[in-house]
Amino acid sequence: MRITGININLKLNVMKKIIGISFILLSVVLFSCNNDKISVAEDGTLSEKSAEITLSEVNLEAATTASEYEVEFYANAEDILSQWWRIGKRWEWTNKMHYMSRQCPNVAVVEGETDSYPKTITLDYGDSTVLKNGKVLSGTIVIEISAPRSSASYSRMVTYNNFGIDTITIAGTSLITVDRENTAFRNYKSDLTITLDNGNVITRSSSRTWMWVEGMETTDDQTDDVIHITGEVTATSGTDSYKKEIVDPLVRIGDCRYIVEGVVEITLNGTLISTLNYGDGECDETATMTNSDGETIEVDLFNCKMKENQNKNKGQGSGNQYGNGGGKGLGNGKG
Question: Could you state, in order of their start, the residue ranges of all structural domains in the chain?
Answer without folding.
Answer: 49-306
